[in-house]
Amino acid sequence: MILAWMLVALAVALSAGIAALALEGAARALGRPTRLPWLLALVFSTLWPAWLLARALAPHHPRDAVAGAIVLPAVLIGGGHDAARLLARLLPIGDGRVSTVLLAAWALATAVCLLRLLSGVRAIRRRRREWVQETVDGVSVLLAPDTGPAVVGVRRPAIVLPEWALSLDPALRRLVLRHEAEHVRAHDTVPRLAAAVLTALVPWNFVLRWQASRLALAIEVDCDARVLRADARRERYGLLLLAIAQRQSTAMLAPALSEPTSHLERRIIAMQRPTPRRPVLVAAALTIAATVSLAIACSAPTPDAPNATNMVEYVKKVQVTRPSPDPASRGTGAYFEFQVNEPVRLREQNPAPRYPSMLESSHVEGEVLAQFVVDTAGRAEMNTFKVLRSTNELFTMSVKDVLPRTRFYAAEVHGRKVRQLVQMPFVFKVPR
Hints:
Structural class: alpha/beta
Strand content: 15-25%
Radius of gyration: 32 Å
Number of helices: 13
Order of helices and strands: HHEEHHEEEEHHHHHHHEHEEHEEEE
Largest sheet: 5 strands, mixed
Distance between the termini: 14 Å
């Protein structure tokens, strides 16, 4: 189950990332900040798979279960061709031992990433105590030997300026300070820290790391745009970025004037990119594309579902043991388990539901919990057939197709055959 859920989480993150790319383009066309789509993509890519996993692990309560209906033993339907069985052995998604190993590796990797993150934060705090508080060109900064330009701190963000920045031309130095001051005003250390924590919690999700990298780039692009709207010339500002990139030493989680070389190139390209002729039309088209991608992400299936045993146990718990004066008054005209001397039993040599070939070839497993009335001749009354739980409509169709040919021993009350309401689980599993 865990491996299947990881694959679903990667697919969700990829769809959310594509949507964020489209929304980033729409925001850029309208002259809006571009970091919000990536921040939302990170949160969605983390919370949506977590919700899918919680839904898969939560007990499923049949919504329309009738108290007092007898639960028959589960019918196990096993599919599998030789090739399917071989693939199932090579990729045992539902195997408990594999899930245990994956969970242990996940926990270990998360612990290592969180420790590295905590170590980086503590290192910044320790070095921060060594930096000198100064006022440069009217701006309060922390003067460091070789760190910065950057912004550090979440609750009390501060600008870190390296000593060599004091030798810059005053006009260029003011640009540096303006850029970092924009980071402080926008509280850009908060989303950077949030992205670092999320990627540390799910270290195996490489798509999430790509989203975090794109968020860092969007934060810098937005900051560049705010600086350029003030008074900077694009050519001079671009040369300043390149010059600082050759000397800069940044601290972890610190929004900085210069990022990795690949980001620098993209930031310079973003500064030179012209505004589209029809920005509203471009933004509308990209928003539609983002909506489609998000819809695909939201349609990701629950990776696994509780087995039929859990459903049977739940139904047994809600069964009522009080007598009923008139079974016909309950609407079905059928007796309940506590009203019969001999309950319904399944006959031997009954045909089994057919495993849907499309689901079998894809190694999709699931179950159906059906409710129906067995008449006095031991046949299922299909007009009373109701699905209480199904993981796939194809499984439901298979069960519905075989029930008319299934035979039971009818229930008895003092030797007289009666109709009885039953619930019957059908479990579809690919042999491993």
